[in-house]
Amino acid sequence: MGILVLGTVALDTVKTPFGKKDFMLGGSAVHFSIASTLFTEVSLVAVVGEDFPAKHIEFLLDKGIDLTSLIHCPGKSFKWQGEYSGDLNCALTLNTELGVLSSFNPSVAAKQRDIQYIFLANVDPDVQARLLSHMRRPRLIGLDSMNFWIKHKRPSLVRLLKKVDIFVANDQEARDLSGEINLVKAAKKLSRMGPRMVLIKKGEHGVLFYSKAFTITLPAYPTEKVIDPTGAGDTFAGAFMGYLAKSGKLDIATIKKSLAYGTVAASFNIEDFGTAKTSCLTLADLNKRLKELKKIVTF
Amino acid sequence: MGILVLGTVALDTVKTPFGKKDFMLGGSAVHFSIASTLFTEVSLVAVVGEDFPAKHIEFLLDKGIDLTSLIHCPGKSFKWQGEYSGDLNCALTLNTELGVLSSFNPSVAAKQRDIQYIFLANVDPDVQARLLSHMRRPRLIGLDSMNFWIKHKRPSLVRLLKKVDIFVANDQEARDLSGEINLVKAAKKLSRMGPRMVLIKKGEHGVLFYSKAFTITLPAYPTEKVIDPTGAGDTFAGAFMGYLAKSGKLDIATIKKSLAYGTVAASFNIEDFGTAKTSCLTLADLNKRLKELKKIVTF
């Protein structure tokens, strides 16, 4: 089927109790694409600056990701610097340099405008809406956001919610946007705001999926190896949407399996810095851990 | 097989966003027994004061719970007053009147000393150890505690840990006692302190079970009906241990099913104040929801 993802391509500097890495390949669209490409063809829509290392571009091309709509702009690439401490569940942003992202106007190559599976990873909701206006035959649209936009661009985000099929949020974002503390209530309320499906990611506590037809909840894959959780949510979304695009279905069995793939993909992501682990991941690796997860939760 | 539980029998006053109830039947041994008695014969070891309402005693007897070792002492019954706000995940203790609990010396009727399944619900670890010294043929010993004892009676608790098979804790207690933030690491470390099995209850996020042979994780039953979570952990433990006692086995399939029973029993407990919901619960109710949970997590 193929999937198109809009998001960020970034250079991440991350400090955790296990060390510090500078200017790693990162960004929502990157983490999403790496996971998604295990299931389907991925077209990436993003922007990078003049300083963006050629090796990262080569890596993404090697992965088979279509970079036709990755714009190279004069200026600096988007850079994020963050730190995790304690339970590594929450990132403290130390610095953000938007660079070329601040004036990003996404353009989609003509041949990509008919792609039916679309994921709007975390960028400005107005940019997400602009991307969507280019697409001719959307069949399934996923949307992610973050607290910054919930706070500063709420009307744009609420407008966009009406146009998408799946809203993906972490627990705090779901609570902030819905005003509900109980996550089942939050999911229901978010669904009433537009999307027929809501996916709430709870980090180490797994995931809650809501649609009118069914509610699904899965625990995270239990692991003690948590090195760097950056991009885990995007990796989850990438595997989840990738499997949906590959299968072309939305029944309960398919949704469950896509959530399970998201869960195990994210569990690999956190095991090393940046994309170190996911960059060499195969579908066989995912399937092996999927089997383990199945054994863990089936009673 | 039968199970013996040591714990508190209390009069609980609870305030939540949904109302306030005064002097309800409560306490760790009560919540545990009500759930456990759906699976096996339960003998309760606890103390109450002169003011303890006869109707509560009648209710427990009606449930078939053996109260031979429930001591009636001169003085006031143990009373707890708490309040929940926000996400109802954390109780704020407003007042505790220990009453007869402060000098509680458990005694076990001769005929009960051969019971092989034992659960030491949350009381002073020295009292828990004293109870254990009465038991002649323990086969499976479960232990619960709380932050107060972790802080104020750590050496006693650590000594007791070496004598039990299953340690049951909530996530915060597991972290406090182990010094580990990652819950898989915490469970492993707690297991190295004595118990061959560790069960970490994560409230709305489900449960993590660890033994050397296997790790299991289950999400909570997704519900938006959370009225009063008091006793949910003890209800979980009651159904969990009750099913283990009934089955007499400890293989992975049995442990999984016992965790699932604990999960659904707890999900009923939180749906109303005190024991309002669990007091009229049947095994058929549990089995029905068990089937739903199975459908939710199986992929």
Q: Any overview of this molecule?
A:
The structure is a homodimer of 299-residue chains. Chain A is α/β, with parallel strands linked by helices. Chain A has a single domain (3-168, 222-297), classed as UDP-N-acetylmuramoyl-L-alanine:D-glutamate ligase (3-Layer(aba) Sandwich). Helices cover 36% and strands 24% of the residues of chain A. The first copy, chain A, has a nine-stranded mixed β-sheet with strand order 5-4-1-8-9-10-11-12-13, sandwiched between helices. The first copy, chain A, has a four-stranded mixed β-sheet with strand order 3-2-6-7. In chain A, helix 8 (232-247) runs antiparallel to helix 9.
Q: Beta-strand percentage of chain A?
A: 15-25%
- The largest beta-sheet of chain A arranges its strands as 5-4-1-8-9-10-11-12-13
Q: Could you give the count of β-strands of chain A?
A: 13
Q: Give the overall shape of chain A.
A: globular
- Helical percent range of chain A? 25-40%
Mean pLDDT of chain A: 96
Structure annotation, total helices of chain A: 10
Under the CATH scheme, the architecture of chain A is 3-Layer(aba) Sandwich
Task: Kindly summarize this structure in a few lines.
Two copies of one chain form a homodimer. Chain A has 299 residues and is an alpha/beta fold.
Which helices and strands occur, and which strands form pairs?
2 copies of one chain form a homodimer.
Chain A lengths: L2 E4 L3 E7 L2 E8 L1 H9 L5 E7 L5 H9 L7 E3 L5 E7 L6 E7 L19 E4 L4 H10 L5 E5 L2 H6 L1 H8 L4 E5 H8 L4 H10 L4 E5 L5 E5 L3 E4 L13 H16 L4 H18 L13 H15 L2
Parallel strand pairs in A: 1-4, 1-8, 2-6, 4-5, 8-9, 9-10, 10-11
Antiparallel strand pairs in A: 2-3, 6-7, 11-12, 12-13
